[in-house]
Amino acid sequence: MTETTNPAPPAADADWWRSAVVYQVYVRSFADADGDGVGDLRGIRERLPYLRDLGVDALWLTPFYTSPQVDAGYDVADYRDVDPLFGTLTDFDAMITDAHALGLRIIVDLVPNHTSSAHPWFQAALAAGPGSPERELYLFADGKGEHGELPPNDWESIFGGPAWTRLPDGQWYLHLFDPAQPDLNWRHPRVRAEFEGVLRFWLDRGVDGFRIDVAHGMIKAEGLPDVGFSSMTTGQRQSELLGKGRLPYFDQDEVHEIYRAWRPILDSYPGGRMAVAEAWAETPQRLARYIGPDELHQAFSFDFLDATWSADSFRKVIDTALAESTIVGAPTTWVLSNHDRQRHVTRYGDGEIGLRRARAAALLMLALPGCAYVYQGEELGLPEVLDLPDELRQDPAFLRTGESRDGCRVPIPWSGELAPYGFGPEGSELSWLPAPATWRALSVAAQTGVAGSTLELYRAALRIRHEHPALAGTTGGVTWLEGGPGMLAFSRTGGGTTLTCVVNISGAPALVEGYGRPLAASEDLTEQGSGHLLAVDAAAWFERR
Ligand code: GLC
């Protein structure tokens, strides 16, 4: 029998994750309780009632572990402790206890592909020198060229530049991300044992699941073969193959052994402990290999995130994702935004058009079978902040590639007239990235109780999603309806009712009839004859009993 410090919520439904709505908390930008300008665990704890009222089932917390913060915490120096920037383990325990009492589950981020260069293992490896057992825990190699002055192969960092850094002693080490994020050697049994221990550490503290960072990356092809091209040789970045092609450092078959070893650990705890993969694979079929009864529970559908604003594009990715999930018996995992990608308001055209489309996309995503992830601030309709001054940008990729993910990481506006809009305690003016003046009107307080606000749209949609029998089913597909060119329409049935979701991407207002009474709409519906006029770039849910 396993001892749990913070037991899972009572009456736990082991299959909760199949249809859950998970809210991604980007910890440093959610709520700042201590007033240092950076969000923290106490801030999350104070805002739990907001999340319960929003109607989500679980939170995914981005890394809050001890870290030099070179890559915003995805560079972990101690996997079993909280960074003082974010609080303490006691704060974590208090937060998860309160969350469970409110019926909210907690998913934490696990970063197994690499550690921080400040991790004691890497420090020991540096000190011990070439050929030492300490170096076997990472991927150290001798260079090519007469004096080993060339990197061991042509691999590129996802953050730009070579994936190898040379040490004063002449050896090179691999880092698929920043040089401060050395890749671990997952062929070493000690690495495997360590992470199984880390899983148990957080499971014992009561976490309901893990988001697995770079889940496709841990095993590298034997012999570390060249890719064959790079930005240096052909001008094409290797990372352009992500999700489209094969790379010798990603999606190797043996990575699945790791998950087959993890699954029994998760299953040995009560209450339905789960794991979701951040994985990139060449095809939806290869992505589906990460999920199923003996591996992980979910893998984000980044094809859905990448779908362009067209009915054909959405329909294609939805059909493919649903087909794959049916084959492996796992739910599809929908996502529109996260902390690595430009916010979808901006991707869909920014400004008023982008917001309309984002609101419609929310109704689309929340009507689909499976699990949905909501990135903090999308329920407020936040756009990407495009004009952050360069000197404030902190993404390590910015210096190497000129691309930065900071614009989707700006702290959430909660209330008030002045930036950072209630992010910190009363009167605090600090926030690690500045919120634009336009966000005053987008704050939680400014939208609460306002009919037609994006926040109230999310609240209504989440409530209906929970209560409506037609949306309760977690398996099976959707029935597509012929709504005409540019119209995306599908229905789901359950409990003697049918719910139809219609999205108008046709470029002109469209008459929608025959689907019953409206339950929710992203823009006002106008009655017309026996039907309703659905505006351009709007979505609505209808119900027929
Ligand atoms: C994942 C994270 C990203 C991070 C990277 C390296 O892609 O989502 O934020 O920079 O892994 O850990």
TrEMBL record:
* Family the entry assigns: Belongs to the glycosyl hydrolase 13 family.
Record lineage: Bacteria, Bacillati, Actinomycetota, Actinomycetes, Micromonosporales
Q: What keywords does the record list, in alphabetical order? A: Glycosidase, Hydrolase
Look up the EC number in the record and give it: 3.2.1.20
Q: Per its UniProt entry, what is the enzyme's top EC class, as one word?
A: hydrolase
* Annotated organism of origin: Micromonospora purpureochromogenes
Which terms does the record give in the GO molecular function aspect? Answer: alpha-1,4-glucosidase activity
Family matches, as CDD domains: AmyAc_OligoGlu_TS
The UniProt record lists the Glycosyl hydrolase family 13 catalytic domain at 24-409
Protein name, as recorded: Alpha-glucosidase
Instruction: Give TM regions.
Output: none
Q: Does the keyword Coiled coil apply?
A: no
Task: Respond yes or no to whether keyword Hydrolase is given for this record.
Answer: yes
InterPro entries (alphabetical): GH, GH13_cat_dom, O16G_dom_2
